[in-house]
Design brief:
It is built from 7 helices and 7 strands, in the order H-H-E-H-E-H-E-H-E-H-E-H-E-E. The chain is an alpha/beta fold and 188 residues long. The radius of gyration is 16 Å and the shape is globular. The model has no long low-confidence stretch (mean pLDDT 87).
Length: 188
């Protein structure tokens, strides 16, 4: 089973069992900073965070590699009349993403990790733009066997990667096995 099939199956199962996606709680906490503009939601899944950002006034490009997820987001966009552009794309084919011609006020990623995207993110985020990333990290506290170690951050990895930006929030939650950063492009 390839990656697209795996994610299609996962999202189809969520939709069939009525497991709605939830807006990330920590993203909600940063709403005072989020004043609208353009946003990129990488690996948007079923689009809960994209919809939230659109409700805050962002024009959102929502990218995911799952046909099922993107079709669901398209239906939600039509139903709720939201400013979201759902985009089906293989996130590992960087040249086909055509992101280098865009500039965003916000880039958002939750529970997706491809370190090769870091330089692209740095180039497409506008000066003073915001970045929110939350994903798994290596911890001895919990066993995340369903996630390969290559998709887990090392301790303080995001902090080190974006050290020259203004870090507004950073957390390693060992009991949950997640790392979260909210930062602003530009000198600190």
């Amino acid at each position: 089973m390839n990656s697209r099939e795996k994610w299609n199956q996962k999202y189809q199962q969520r939709l069939t069992t009525s497991q709605p996606s939830q807006v990330n709680k920590r993203l909600i906490n940063f709403s005072p900073y989020l004043k609208g503009g353009t946003a990129l939601d990488i690996a948007c899944g079923l689009g809960a965070n994209s919809r939230y950002l659109a409700q805050l006034g962002y024009k959102v490009d929502a990218i995911d590699g799952s046909d099922v997820a993107i079709e669901y987001v398209k239906k939600q966009v039509e139903k709720e009349n939201l400013s979201i552009q759902p985009i089906l794309a293989d996130l590992t084919e960087y040249e086909n993403l055509k992101l280098n011609h865009q500039k965003y006020d916000l880039v958002h990623i939750t529970y997706y990790l491809d370190r090769n995207l870091f330089p692209i993110i740095k180039s497409i985020l506008k000066e003073s733009g915001f970045l929110f990333i939350e994903t798994y990290f290596l911890t001895s506290e919990i066993d995340q066997q369903h996630v390969s170690n290559k998709y887990k951050l090392k301790s303080q990895e995001l902090l080190k990667e974006f050290i020259d930006w203004k870090i507004l929030f950073y957390e390693e939650e060992e009991h949950e096995g997640r790392q979260t950063i909210f930062c602003q492009k530009g000198s600190c």
